[in-house]
Amino acid sequence: MGSKVRATHELLQAQAHIWNHIFSFINSMSLKCAVQLDIPDVIQKHGQPMTLSELVSALPISPTKAHFIPRLMRILVHSGFFVRESLNGGEQGYVLTDASALLLKDNPMSARPFLLAMLNPILTDPWQYLTTWFQNDNPTPFHVGVFQGVDSLVDVGGGTGTVAKSIADAFPHMKCTVLDLPHVVADLKGSKNLEYVAGNMFEAVPAADAIFLKWILHDWSDEECMKILERCKEAITREGKKGKVIIVDMTVENKNTDKESGETQLFFDMLMMVMATGKERNDKEWAKLFSDAGFSYYKITPCLGLRSLIEVYP
């Protein structure tokens, strides 16, 4: 009987171990939610243990979701990010721990920017393709995620095709096209999945699942960019497609950018002012540009040094 009980206990422990790993993502997502709701800062500013009712009243949440906050706080207490202290009258108040203090906005050592960056869908989604990455020759799961479902790509203003060649080599199934002015692509030869097309991005862009714009839009004014983006939207929605535009460009005035990098971005902005009709844009300026061009959704991820990866959807 003892051995059967022990076997059952071990089986239940094994099952619990698996379940713990299956649901472990809830820890990081709950913490991300707390940070986005500014819970650590709200409790810190309160100046003393904060009751549940006080916390709920101070949070920017829908009244219909107020009764869920205790459950969010319960798992965060369990994870060691907050502590409940007993107050007079039998109530309990939440206080910070050393860990949640590191998530305060004004903490010089704040881990908040890193947490939000690492848990951004742009960096978490590629993990869904880890198995695929092991099974092919693509460089990283990140590249697999960005180009997942993309069978055709047009590199607009791609010059001699340096970037397009790298993409074509990494994704042999993908048809890559470089679009540039006639004198740029006149004598260039393609390959099995790479071709060169002479054209003007202000007039038309070949149809594809994805349009790639690397360091293109910062050269042009908002009006000119809108024309380019409108042609790109036509290209990813033509022939029944519903693709995306992939942009590599700077996003200035980013709170998470260090002083030196931010200054370099401003240098580039001044350079665009003097050398071209363009500019480096901040998040709000990108949002307005995409909206004016008829797009409905976009994601900006600072992940390429001074530059950001921007995905725009119709």
UniProtKB/TrEMBL annotation:
<dbReference type="InterPro" id="IPR012967">
    <property type="entry name" value="COMT_dimerisation"/>
</dbReference>
<dbReference type="GO" id="GO:0008171">
    <property type="term" value="F:O-methyltransferase activity"/>
</dbReference>
<dbReference type="InterPro" id="IPR036388">
    <property type="entry name" value="WH-like_DNA-bd_sf"/>
</dbReference>
<dbReference type="InterPro" id="IPR016461">
    <property type="entry name" value="COMT-like"/>
</dbReference>
<dbReference type="Pfam" id="PF00891">
    <property type="entry name" value="Methyltransf_2"/>
</dbReference>
<feature type="domain" description="O-methyltransferase dimerisation">
    <location>
        <begin position="19"/>
        <end position="106"/>
    </location>
</feature>
<dbReference type="GO" id="GO:0009717">
    <property type="term" value="P:isoflavonoid biosynthetic process"/>
</dbReference>
<dbReference type="Pfam" id="PF08100">
    <property type="entry name" value="Dimerisation"/>
</dbReference>
<keyword id="KW-0949">S-adenosyl-L-methionine</keyword>
<protein>
    <submittedName>
        <fullName>PREDICTED: trans-resveratrol</fullName>
    </submittedName>
</protein>
<dbReference type="InterPro" id="IPR036390">
    <property type="entry name" value="WH_DNA-bd_sf"/>
</dbReference>
<dbReference type="GO" id="GO:0046983">
    <property type="term" value="F:protein dimerization activity"/>
</dbReference>
<feature type="domain" description="O-methyltransferase C-terminal">
    <location>
        <begin position="147"/>
        <end position="296"/>
    </location>
</feature>
<feature type="active site" description="Proton acceptor">
    <location>
        <position position="218"/>
    </location>
</feature>
<keyword id="KW-0489">Methyltransferase</keyword>
<dbReference type="GO" id="GO:0032259">
    <property type="term" value="P:methylation"/>
</dbReference>
<dbReference type="InterPro" id="IPR001077">
    <property type="entry name" value="COMT_C"/>
</dbReference>
<keyword id="KW-0808">Transferase</keyword>
<dbReference type="GO" id="GO:0008757">
    <property type="term" value="F:S-adenosylmethionine-dependent methyltransferase activity"/>
</dbReference>
<dbReference type="InterPro" id="IPR029063">
    <property type="entry name" value="SAM-dependent_MTases_sf"/>
</dbReference>
